[in-house]
Design a protein that fits this description.
heterodimer; A: alpha/beta; Rossmann fold; 6-stranded mixed beta sheet; B: ABC transporter involved in vitamin B12 uptake, BtuC
Protein backbone atom coordinates (compact mmCIF):
# COMPACT_ATOMS: atom_id res chain seq x y z
CA UNK A 1 0.00 0.00 0.00
CA UNK A 2 1.28 3.41 -0.93
CA UNK A 3 2.13 5.85 1.80
CA UNK A 4 0.15 9.02 1.15
CA UNK A 5 1.33 11.08 4.07
CA UNK A 6 4.22 10.83 6.45
CA UNK A 7 4.81 13.15 9.38
CA UNK A 8 7.99 12.53 11.31
CA UNK A 9 8.70 14.16 14.68
CA UNK A 10 6.76 17.34 13.89
CA UNK A 11 7.10 20.25 16.31
CA UNK A 12 5.11 23.43 15.74
CA UNK A 13 5.19 26.66 17.66
CA UNK A 14 2.78 29.52 17.03
CA UNK A 15 2.95 32.84 18.86
CA UNK A 16 5.38 31.45 21.42
CA UNK A 17 3.14 28.49 22.22
CA UNK A 18 3.92 24.88 21.51
CA UNK A 19 1.02 23.60 19.41
CA UNK A 20 2.30 20.25 18.19
CA UNK A 21 4.87 18.20 20.01
CA UNK A 22 6.73 15.34 18.41
CA UNK A 23 3.88 14.27 16.13
CA UNK A 24 4.49 11.32 13.86
CA UNK A 25 1.86 9.84 11.59
CA UNK A 26 1.70 7.65 8.51
CA UNK A 27 -1.40 7.51 6.38
CA UNK A 28 -1.84 4.99 3.58
CA UNK A 29 -3.84 5.00 0.39
CA UNK A 30 -7.52 4.33 1.04
CA UNK A 31 -7.40 5.17 4.75
CA UNK A 32 -10.26 7.07 6.32
CA UNK A 33 -8.65 8.57 9.38
CA UNK A 34 -10.51 10.52 12.03
CA UNK A 35 -8.45 12.69 14.34
CA UNK A 36 -10.22 13.68 17.53
CA UNK A 37 -9.14 16.00 20.28
CA UNK A 38 -10.28 18.96 22.32
CA UNK A 39 -10.61 22.47 20.91
CA UNK A 40 -7.22 24.13 20.76
CA UNK A 41 -5.52 20.76 20.67
CA UNK A 42 -3.73 21.51 17.40
CA UNK A 43 -6.06 19.72 14.96
CA UNK A 44 -6.38 22.58 12.48
CA UNK A 45 -2.66 23.28 12.78
CA UNK A 46 -1.91 19.68 11.91
CA UNK A 47 -3.95 19.99 8.70
CA UNK A 48 -2.18 23.25 7.89
CA UNK A 49 1.19 21.55 8.33
CA UNK A 50 0.12 18.93 5.78
CA UNK A 51 -0.94 21.70 3.39
CA UNK A 52 2.29 23.64 3.90
CA UNK A 53 0.39 26.60 5.38
CA UNK A 54 2.22 26.21 8.68
CA UNK A 55 5.92 25.36 8.87
CA UNK A 56 7.08 23.08 11.67
CA UNK A 57 10.30 24.22 13.32
CA UNK A 58 11.43 20.64 13.53
CA UNK A 59 10.47 17.45 11.76
CA UNK A 60 9.71 16.22 8.28
CA UNK A 61 6.51 16.41 6.26
CA UNK A 62 6.10 14.33 3.18
CA UNK A 63 2.91 14.39 1.10
CA UNK A 64 2.87 11.83 -1.71
CA UNK A 65 6.60 11.58 -1.20
CA UNK A 66 7.17 15.31 -1.72
CA UNK A 67 7.41 18.43 0.41
CA UNK A 68 3.94 19.86 1.17
CA UNK A 69 4.32 22.82 -1.23
CA UNK A 70 4.48 20.32 -4.12
CA UNK A 71 2.43 17.55 -2.59
CA UNK A 72 -0.53 19.87 -2.03
CA UNK A 73 -1.25 19.54 -5.74
CA UNK A 74 -3.00 16.28 -4.91
CA UNK A 75 -4.65 17.49 -1.71
CA UNK A 76 -8.20 18.77 -1.35
CA UNK A 77 -9.09 20.99 1.58
CA UNK A 78 -12.43 21.57 3.28
CA UNK A 79 -11.85 24.29 5.87
CA UNK A 80 -14.06 25.19 8.75
CA UNK A 81 -16.47 27.56 7.12
CA UNK A 82 -15.61 30.50 9.27
CA UNK A 83 -12.56 31.17 7.07
CA UNK A 84 -14.43 33.45 4.66
CA UNK A 85 -16.97 36.25 4.81
CA UNK A 86 -20.43 34.86 4.34
CA UNK A 87 -21.76 38.09 2.82
CA UNK A 88 -19.31 37.90 -0.09
CA UNK A 89 -21.23 38.45 -3.36
CA UNK A 90 -20.67 35.08 -4.97
CA UNK A 91 -22.92 32.18 -5.88
CA UNK A 92 -22.57 28.48 -5.22
CA UNK A 93 -21.31 27.54 -8.69
CA UNK A 94 -18.65 30.26 -8.60
CA UNK A 95 -17.41 29.03 -5.23
CA UNK A 96 -17.21 25.45 -6.44
CA UNK A 97 -15.34 26.52 -9.59
CA UNK A 98 -12.52 27.82 -7.40
CA UNK A 99 -11.35 24.25 -7.06
CA UNK A 100 -10.54 24.49 -10.77
CA UNK A 101 -7.94 27.20 -10.18
CA UNK A 102 -5.47 24.37 -9.78
CA UNK A 103 -5.96 23.23 -13.38
CA UNK A 104 -6.64 26.64 -14.93
CA UNK A 105 -3.69 28.96 -14.34
CA UNK A 106 -3.54 32.75 -14.58
CA UNK A 107 -4.56 34.34 -17.92
CA UNK A 108 -6.84 31.40 -18.72
CA UNK A 109 -10.43 32.26 -17.90
CA UNK A 110 -12.75 29.50 -16.71
CA UNK A 111 -14.52 27.77 -19.57
CA UNK A 112 -17.23 25.24 -20.21
CA UNK A 113 -15.13 22.30 -19.07
CA UNK A 114 -14.62 23.97 -15.67
CA UNK A 115 -18.32 24.68 -15.30
CA UNK A 116 -19.13 21.08 -16.16
CA UNK A 117 -16.67 19.76 -13.56
CA UNK A 118 -18.14 22.09 -10.95
CA UNK A 119 -21.63 21.02 -11.93
CA UNK A 120 -20.70 17.35 -11.64
CA UNK A 121 -19.26 17.90 -8.17
CA UNK A 122 -22.44 19.71 -7.13
CA UNK A 123 -24.52 16.82 -8.44
CA UNK A 124 -22.42 14.42 -6.39
CA UNK A 125 -23.08 16.32 -3.17
CA UNK A 126 -26.73 16.81 -4.20
CA UNK A 127 -26.51 20.58 -4.26
CA UNK A 128 -26.88 21.19 -8.02
CA UNK A 129 -30.32 22.75 -7.56
CA UNK A 130 -28.71 25.51 -5.47
CA UNK A 131 -26.03 26.45 -7.99
CA UNK A 132 -27.24 30.03 -8.43
CA UNK A 133 -27.83 30.69 -4.76
CA UNK A 134 -25.82 33.32 -2.96
CA UNK A 135 -23.29 31.59 -0.69
CA UNK A 136 -24.44 33.53 2.38
CA UNK A 137 -28.00 32.21 2.15
CA UNK A 138 -27.09 28.54 2.59
CA UNK A 139 -27.73 26.57 5.76
CA UNK A 140 -24.78 25.05 7.61
CA UNK A 141 -25.30 21.62 6.06
CA UNK A 142 -25.73 22.99 2.53
CA UNK A 143 -22.60 25.10 2.87
CA UNK A 144 -20.62 22.12 4.10
CA UNK A 145 -21.64 20.11 1.04
CA UNK A 146 -20.74 23.00 -1.25
CA UNK A 147 -17.30 23.25 0.35
CA UNK A 148 -16.81 19.52 -0.16
CA UNK A 149 -17.79 19.99 -3.82
CA UNK A 150 -15.25 22.81 -4.11
CA UNK A 151 -12.51 20.55 -2.77
CA UNK A 152 -13.60 17.74 -5.13
CA UNK A 153 -13.31 19.92 -8.25
CA UNK A 154 -9.61 20.25 -7.47
CA UNK A 155 -9.47 16.47 -8.11
CA UNK A 156 -7.62 15.47 -4.93
CA UNK A 157 -6.16 12.11 -3.98
CA UNK A 158 -6.11 13.11 -0.32
CA UNK A 159 -9.00 15.01 1.22
CA UNK A 160 -8.47 17.00 4.42
CA UNK A 161 -11.55 18.08 6.34
CA UNK A 162 -11.62 20.43 9.28
CA UNK A 163 -14.61 19.97 11.61
CA UNK A 164 -17.03 19.09 8.80
CA UNK A 165 -19.86 18.55 11.25
CA UNK A 166 -19.51 21.66 13.41
CA UNK A 167 -22.75 23.69 13.45
CA UNK A 168 -24.69 20.85 11.85
CA UNK A 169 -27.60 18.84 13.23
CA UNK A 170 -27.19 15.13 13.74
CA UNK A 171 -29.31 13.94 10.75
CA UNK A 172 -27.32 16.19 8.41
CA UNK A 173 -24.13 14.98 10.02
CA UNK A 174 -25.06 11.43 9.14
CA UNK A 175 -25.76 12.48 5.55
CA UNK A 176 -22.35 14.13 5.28
CA UNK A 177 -20.67 10.95 6.52
CA UNK A 178 -22.68 8.87 4.04
CA UNK A 179 -21.37 11.18 1.33
CA UNK A 180 -17.78 10.73 2.50
CA UNK A 181 -18.32 6.98 2.60
CA UNK A 182 -19.02 7.18 -1.14
CA UNK A 183 -15.82 9.13 -1.78
CA UNK A 184 -13.57 6.57 -0.11
CA UNK A 185 -13.20 4.59 -3.31
CA UNK A 186 -11.42 7.49 -4.98
CA UNK A 187 -9.40 9.13 -2.25
CA UNK A 188 -7.79 8.95 1.13
CA UNK A 189 -9.61 11.02 3.75
CA UNK A 190 -8.36 12.68 6.92
CA UNK A 191 -10.94 14.37 9.07
CA UNK A 192 -10.43 16.26 12.31
CA UNK A 193 -13.18 16.95 14.81
CA UNK A 194 -13.73 17.63 18.48
CA UNK A 195 -16.98 15.75 18.27
CA UNK A 196 -16.60 12.00 18.54
CA UNK A 197 -20.32 11.31 17.94
CA UNK A 198 -21.01 9.68 14.60
CA UNK A 199 -17.36 9.71 13.57
CA UNK A 200 -16.55 6.29 14.93
CA UNK A 201 -19.20 4.57 12.82
CA UNK A 202 -17.64 5.63 9.55
CA UNK A 203 -13.89 6.10 9.87
CA UNK A 204 -11.68 3.07 9.96
CA UNK A 205 -8.84 4.60 11.94
CA UNK A 206 -8.85 7.03 14.82
CA UNK A 207 -6.08 9.13 16.30
CA UNK A 208 -6.25 11.38 19.36
CA UNK A 209 -4.53 14.74 19.33
CA UNK A 210 -3.86 17.19 22.08
CA UNK A 211 -0.47 18.64 21.26
CA UNK A 212 0.79 15.06 21.19
CA UNK A 213 -0.71 12.48 18.86
CA UNK A 214 -1.80 9.05 19.97
CA UNK A 215 -2.27 6.64 17.10
CA UNK A 216 -2.02 2.90 16.68
CA UNK A 217 -2.93 2.60 12.99
CA UNK A 218 -6.34 1.24 13.92
CA UNK A 219 -9.78 2.22 15.10
CA UNK A 220 -8.97 1.31 18.63
CA UNK A 221 -8.59 4.11 21.14
CA UNK A 222 -6.98 3.14 24.36
CA UNK A 223 -8.61 4.61 27.46
CA UNK A 224 -5.23 5.83 28.64
CA UNK A 225 -4.80 7.77 25.37
CA UNK A 226 -8.14 9.50 25.77
CA UNK A 227 -7.31 10.36 29.32
CA UNK A 228 -4.01 11.82 28.20
CA UNK A 229 -5.71 13.82 25.44
CA UNK A 230 -8.73 15.13 27.28
CA UNK A 231 -7.15 15.27 30.70
CA UNK A 232 -9.97 13.21 32.19
CA UNK A 233 -11.58 9.84 31.57
CA UNK A 234 -13.95 10.02 28.63
CA UNK A 235 -16.73 7.56 28.03
CA UNK A 236 -17.12 7.27 24.29
CA UNK A 237 -20.17 5.09 24.51
CA UNK A 238 -22.18 7.44 26.65
CA UNK A 239 -23.40 9.78 23.90
CA UNK A 240 -26.22 7.64 22.59
CA UNK A 241 -24.08 6.11 19.88
CA UNK A 242 -24.77 2.41 19.65
CA UNK A 243 -21.25 1.51 18.56
CA UNK A 244 -18.39 0.45 20.64
CA UNK A 245 -15.31 2.50 20.03
CA UNK A 246 -13.20 1.24 22.83
CA UNK A 247 -11.91 -2.27 22.56
CA UNK A 248 -12.97 -4.70 25.21
CA UNK A 249 -10.64 -4.40 28.10
CA UNK A 250 -10.43 -5.97 31.49
CA UNK A 251 -11.14 -3.93 34.57
CA UNK B 1 -23.28 81.44 -21.00
CA UNK B 2 -20.35 79.22 -20.13
CA UNK B 3 -17.17 80.76 -21.49
CA UNK B 4 -14.70 78.73 -23.52
CA UNK B 5 -12.21 78.64 -20.64
CA UNK B 6 -14.84 77.34 -18.27
CA UNK B 7 -15.84 74.82 -20.90
CA UNK B 8 -12.27 73.46 -20.89
CA UNK B 9 -12.33 73.12 -17.12
CA UNK B 10 -15.65 71.35 -17.16
CA UNK B 11 -14.66 69.01 -19.95
CA UNK B 12 -11.51 67.98 -18.09
CA UNK B 13 -13.47 67.61 -14.87
CA UNK B 14 -16.03 65.33 -16.51
CA UNK B 15 -13.30 63.24 -18.14
CA UNK B 16 -11.51 62.99 -14.81
CA UNK B 17 -14.78 61.92 -13.21
CA UNK B 18 -15.29 59.23 -15.82
CA UNK B 19 -11.75 57.87 -15.46
CA UNK B 20 -11.98 57.89 -11.67
CA UNK B 21 -15.32 56.06 -11.69
CA UNK B 22 -13.84 53.19 -13.71
CA UNK B 23 -10.98 52.75 -11.23
CA UNK B 24 -13.26 53.04 -8.22
CA UNK B 25 -15.74 50.58 -9.67
CA UNK B 26 -13.16 47.83 -10.04
CA UNK B 27 -10.85 48.53 -7.12
CA UNK B 28 -13.56 49.77 -4.75
CA UNK B 29 -15.55 46.59 -5.25
CA UNK B 30 -12.55 44.41 -4.38
CA UNK B 31 -11.75 46.64 -1.39
CA UNK B 32 -15.30 46.48 -0.06
CA UNK B 33 -15.83 42.73 -0.45
CA UNK B 34 -12.35 41.93 0.89
CA UNK B 35 -13.08 44.25 3.85
CA UNK B 36 -9.86 46.20 3.50
CA UNK B 37 -11.25 49.72 3.53
CA UNK B 38 -8.95 50.68 6.39
CA UNK B 39 -5.95 49.35 4.49
CA UNK B 40 -6.96 51.51 1.50
CA UNK B 41 -7.29 54.48 3.86
CA UNK B 42 -3.80 53.80 5.14
CA UNK B 43 -2.34 53.78 1.64
CA UNK B 44 -4.25 56.98 0.80
CA UNK B 45 -2.95 58.91 3.77
CA UNK B 46 0.56 57.54 3.40
CA UNK B 47 0.55 58.95 -0.14
CA UNK B 48 0.72 62.41 1.42
CA UNK B 49 4.34 61.56 2.17
CA UNK B 50 4.89 61.34 -1.57
CA UNK B 51 3.27 64.71 -2.13
CA UNK B 52 5.54 66.35 0.44
CA UNK B 53 8.61 64.74 -1.13
CA UNK B 54 7.47 65.97 -4.54
CA UNK B 55 7.22 69.55 -3.30
CA UNK B 56 10.57 69.42 -1.58
CA UNK B 57 12.50 68.04 -4.56
CA UNK B 58 10.55 70.08 -7.09
CA UNK B 59 8.92 67.07 -8.75
CA UNK B 60 5.33 66.77 -9.89
CA UNK B 61 3.66 65.94 -6.55
CA UNK B 62 1.21 63.55 -8.20
CA UNK B 63 4.02 61.50 -9.76
CA UNK B 64 5.95 61.30 -6.50
CA UNK B 65 2.69 60.41 -4.75
CA UNK B 66 2.23 57.60 -7.27
CA UNK B 67 5.68 56.18 -6.58
CA UNK B 68 5.34 56.65 -2.85
CA UNK B 69 1.88 55.11 -2.55
CA UNK B 70 2.82 52.09 -4.67
CA UNK B 71 5.81 51.56 -2.36
CA UNK B 72 3.75 52.02 0.78
CA UNK B 73 1.04 49.71 -0.60
CA UNK B 74 3.60 46.96 -1.13
CA UNK B 75 5.19 47.79 2.24
CA UNK B 76 1.85 47.57 4.02
CA UNK B 77 0.91 44.40 2.16
CA UNK B 78 4.08 42.74 3.43
CA UNK B 79 3.95 44.35 6.88
CA UNK B 80 0.41 43.20 7.69
CA UNK B 81 1.61 39.62 7.24
CA UNK B 82 5.11 39.63 8.63
CA UNK B 83 5.06 42.12 11.47
CA UNK B 84 4.10 40.73 14.84
CA UNK B 85 1.46 43.36 15.51
CA UNK B 86 -2.17 43.19 14.52
CA UNK B 87 -3.13 44.21 10.99
CA UNK B 88 -5.01 47.33 12.00
CA UNK B 89 -2.19 48.54 14.25
CA UNK B 90 0.32 48.12 11.41
CA UNK B 91 -1.95 50.08 9.07
CA UNK B 92 -2.48 52.83 11.65
CA UNK B 93 1.26 53.22 12.16
CA UNK B 94 2.11 53.39 8.44
CA UNK B 95 -0.83 55.76 7.88
CA UNK B 96 0.62 58.16 10.45
CA UNK B 97 4.23 57.82 9.27
CA UNK B 98 3.21 58.71 5.69
CA UNK B 99 1.24 61.75 6.80
CA UNK B 100 4.07 62.88 9.08
CA UNK B 101 6.64 62.58 6.30
CA UNK B 102 4.39 64.70 4.09
CA UNK B 103 3.99 67.39 6.72
CA UNK B 104 7.74 67.36 7.38
CA UNK B 105 8.75 67.76 3.72
CA UNK B 106 6.10 70.41 3.09
CA UNK B 107 7.49 72.28 6.13
CA UNK B 108 11.03 71.97 4.82
CA UNK B 109 10.06 73.28 1.38
CA UNK B 110 11.13 76.92 1.22
CA UNK B 111 8.56 79.56 0.35
CA UNK B 112 4.92 79.20 -0.55
CA UNK B 113 3.50 75.73 -1.25
CA UNK B 114 0.89 76.07 -3.98
CA UNK B 115 -2.31 73.93 -4.17
CA UNK B 116 -1.53 71.96 -1.01
CA UNK B 117 -5.16 72.24 -0.06
CA UNK B 118 -6.29 70.77 -3.36
CA UNK B 119 -4.25 67.61 -2.76
CA UNK B 120 -5.84 67.16 0.65
CA UNK B 121 -9.42 67.99 -0.29
CA UNK B 122 -9.42 67.74 -4.07
CA UNK B 123 -10.37 70.13 -6.82
CA UNK B 124 -11.73 68.36 -9.83
CA UNK B 125 -11.97 71.63 -11.75
CA UNK B 126 -8.19 71.98 -11.67
CA UNK B 127 -7.19 68.75 -13.42
CA UNK B 128 -4.62 69.61 -16.10
CA UNK B 129 -4.79 67.75 -19.41
CA UNK B 130 -1.49 65.90 -18.88
CA UNK B 131 -2.82 64.48 -15.63
CA UNK B 132 -5.83 63.18 -17.52
CA UNK B 133 -3.35 61.22 -19.59
CA UNK B 134 -1.74 59.79 -16.46
CA UNK B 135 -5.18 58.85 -15.15
CA UNK B 136 -6.07 57.15 -18.43
CA UNK B 137 -2.88 55.10 -18.31
CA UNK B 138 -3.55 54.04 -14.70
CA UNK B 139 -7.12 53.15 -15.64
CA UNK B 140 -5.91 50.96 -18.48
CA UNK B 141 -3.44 49.19 -16.19
CA UNK B 142 -6.14 48.55 -13.58
CA UNK B 143 -8.55 47.31 -16.23
CA UNK B 144 -5.95 45.05 -17.83
CA UNK B 145 -4.94 43.46 -14.52
CA UNK B 146 -8.55 43.02 -13.44
CA UNK B 147 -9.51 41.30 -16.69
CA UNK B 148 -6.37 39.17 -16.96
CA UNK B 149 -6.38 37.95 -13.36
CA UNK B 150 -10.05 38.24 -12.48
CA UNK B 151 -10.51 34.73 -11.14
CA UNK B 152 -7.30 34.85 -9.09
CA UNK B 153 -8.19 38.24 -7.57
CA UNK B 154 -11.67 37.01 -6.66
CA UNK B 155 -10.23 33.86 -5.13
CA UNK B 156 -7.74 35.82 -3.03
CA UNK B 157 -10.47 38.16 -1.82
CA UNK B 158 -12.93 35.38 -1.07
CA UNK B 159 -10.82 32.70 0.59
CA UNK B 160 -7.11 33.30 0.47
CA UNK B 161 -6.20 30.10 2.25
CA UNK B 162 -8.11 27.89 -0.16
CA UNK B 163 -6.72 29.85 -3.11
CA UNK B 164 -3.22 29.11 -1.84
CA UNK B 165 -4.00 25.43 -1.44
CA UNK B 166 -5.12 25.16 -5.07
CA UNK B 167 -1.90 26.78 -6.23
CA UNK B 168 -2.75 30.48 -6.59
CA UNK B 169 0.21 32.72 -5.72
CA UNK B 170 -1.84 34.57 -3.16
CA UNK B 171 0.83 36.92 -1.82
CA UNK B 172 1.59 38.12 -5.35
CA UNK B 173 -2.06 38.75 -6.21
CA UNK B 174 -2.76 40.41 -2.88
CA UNK B 175 0.11 42.83 -3.53
CA UNK B 176 -1.16 43.35 -7.07
CA UNK B 177 -4.52 44.31 -5.64
CA UNK B 178 -2.88 46.78 -3.25
CA UNK B 179 -0.93 48.36 -6.11
CA UNK B 180 -4.25 48.77 -7.94
CA UNK B 181 -5.58 50.46 -4.80
CA UNK B 182 -2.56 52.80 -4.85
CA UNK B 183 -3.22 53.63 -8.52
CA UNK B 184 -6.84 54.52 -7.87
CA UNK B 185 -5.91 56.59 -4.85
CA UNK B 186 -3.52 58.69 -6.90
CA UNK B 187 -6.30 59.21 -9.45
CA UNK B 188 -8.69 60.22 -6.70
CA UNK B 189 -6.35 62.73 -5.08
CA UNK B 190 -7.22 65.35 -7.70
CA UNK B 191 -10.92 64.61 -7.55
CA UNK B 192 -11.82 64.46 -3.88
CA UNK B 193 -8.44 64.70 -2.14
CA UNK B 194 -6.49 62.38 0.13
CA UNK B 195 -8.74 62.93 3.12
CA UNK B 196 -11.90 62.04 1.20
CA UNK B 197 -10.54 59.22 -0.99
CA UNK B 198 -12.29 56.50 0.99
CA UNK B 199 -15.68 57.93 0.10
CA UNK B 200 -15.47 57.19 -3.61
CA UNK B 201 -13.77 53.85 -3.03
CA UNK B 202 -16.42 52.60 -0.63
CA UNK B 203 -19.78 54.35 -1.12
CA UNK B 204 -20.56 53.33 -4.74
CA UNK B 205 -19.59 49.70 -4.12
CA UNK B 206 -21.45 49.47 -0.84
CA UNK B 207 -24.65 50.77 -2.43
CA UNK B 208 -24.12 48.46 -5.41
CA UNK B 209 -23.78 45.50 -3.04
CA UNK B 210 -27.33 46.16 -1.83
CA UNK B 211 -28.60 46.00 -5.40
CA UNK B 212 -26.89 42.84 -6.60
CA UNK B 213 -25.24 39.65 -5.38
CA UNK B 214 -22.92 39.41 -8.38
CA UNK B 215 -19.41 40.80 -8.18
CA UNK B 216 -19.33 41.76 -11.85
CA UNK B 217 -22.66 43.56 -11.69
CA UNK B 218 -21.43 45.28 -8.54
CA UNK B 219 -18.53 46.70 -10.53
CA UNK B 220 -20.73 48.04 -13.32
CA UNK B 221 -23.29 49.48 -10.92
CA UNK B 222 -20.71 51.16 -8.71
CA UNK B 223 -19.05 52.62 -11.81
CA UNK B 224 -22.34 54.22 -12.79
CA UNK B 225 -23.02 55.41 -9.26
CA UNK B 226 -19.51 56.85 -8.89
CA UNK B 227 -19.83 58.79 -12.14
CA UNK B 228 -23.27 60.07 -11.11
CA UNK B 229 -21.85 61.28 -7.79
CA UNK B 230 -18.97 63.07 -9.51
CA UNK B 231 -21.18 64.76 -12.09
CA UNK B 232 -23.83 65.63 -9.52
CA UNK B 233 -21.26 67.02 -7.13
CA UNK B 234 -19.57 68.94 -9.92
CA UNK B 235 -22.80 70.59 -11.06
CA UNK B 236 -23.96 71.38 -7.56
CA UNK B 237 -20.61 72.80 -6.45
CA UNK B 238 -20.52 74.92 -9.61
CA UNK B 239 -24.04 76.27 -9.02
CA UNK B 240 -23.56 76.89 -5.31
CA UNK B 241 -19.91 77.91 -5.57
CA UNK B 242 -18.78 75.44 -2.87
CA UNK B 243 -15.79 73.03 -2.85
CA UNK B 244 -16.28 70.24 -5.41
CA UNK B 245 -14.58 67.36 -3.55
CA UNK B 246 -16.70 67.73 -0.43
CA UNK B 247 -19.87 68.14 -2.53
CA UNK B 248 -19.16 64.92 -4.45
CA UNK B 249 -18.57 63.03 -1.23
CA UNK B 250 -21.70 64.43 0.42
CA UNK B 251 -23.87 63.51 -2.55
CA UNK B 252 -22.49 59.96 -2.34
CA UNK B 253 -22.97 59.90 1.42
CA UNK B 254 -26.50 61.27 1.09
CA UNK B 255 -27.39 58.63 -1.49
CA UNK B 256 -26.02 55.95 0.81
CA UNK B 257 -28.12 57.18 3.73
CA UNK B 258 -31.25 57.37 1.59
CA UNK B 259 -30.61 53.84 0.25
CA UNK B 260 -30.14 52.54 3.79
CA UNK B 261 -33.27 54.38 4.87
CA UNK B 262 -35.33 52.82 2.11
CA UNK B 263 -33.96 49.40 3.01
CA UNK B 264 -34.79 49.97 6.67
CA UNK B 265 -38.28 51.18 5.85
CA UNK B 266 -39.02 48.27 3.54
CA UNK B 267 -37.96 45.90 6.31
CA UNK B 268 -40.17 47.81 8.71
CA UNK B 269 -43.13 47.50 6.36
CA UNK B 270 -42.64 43.80 5.93
CA UNK B 271 -44.31 41.85 8.72
CA UNK B 272 -41.66 39.79 10.57
CA UNK B 273 -43.33 36.50 9.67
CA UNK B 274 -42.80 36.95 5.93
CA UNK B 275 -39.11 37.84 6.20
CA UNK B 276 -36.78 35.24 4.72
Amino acid sequence: MQEVLRLKDIWVELGGQLILEDVSLSVYEGDFLGIIGPNGGGKTTLLKVILGLVKPFRGEVSVFGRPPEEGKRLVGYVPQYSTFERDFPINVLEVVMMGRLRKRGPLHPFGRADREKAWAALELVEMAHLKDREIGTLSGGELQRVLIARALTSEPKLLLMDEPTANIDLPVETEIFELLEGLREQMTIILVTHDVGVLSTYVDKIACLNRRLFYHDSKEIRPEDLEAVYGCPVDLIAHGVPHRVLGEHSQ
Amino acid sequence: MISLLEYDFLRNALLAGLLVSVACAIVGTFVVVRKMVFLAGGIAHASFGGIGIGYFFGLNPLLSALAFSVLSAVGMGIAVRKVRVSEDSAIGILWAIGMALGVLFVGLTPGYVPDLFSYLFGNILMVPTQELLLMAILDLLILAVAVAFYKELVAVCFDEEFAWVVGVRTQLFFLMLLVMVAFSIVMLIRTVGIVLVLALITIPSVIARHLTASLRKMMFLSGGLGFAFVVGGLVLSYLLDVPSGATIVLIGGGTFLIAEGIKGLSKWWTPPASRP
